[in-house]
Amino acid sequence: MTTRRVEFDLGQSDTTWSARMATKILQTEQEAGFPYAIARVELYKIQFWN
Question: Dmax over Cα atoms in the chain, in whole Å?
Answer without folding.
Answer: 46
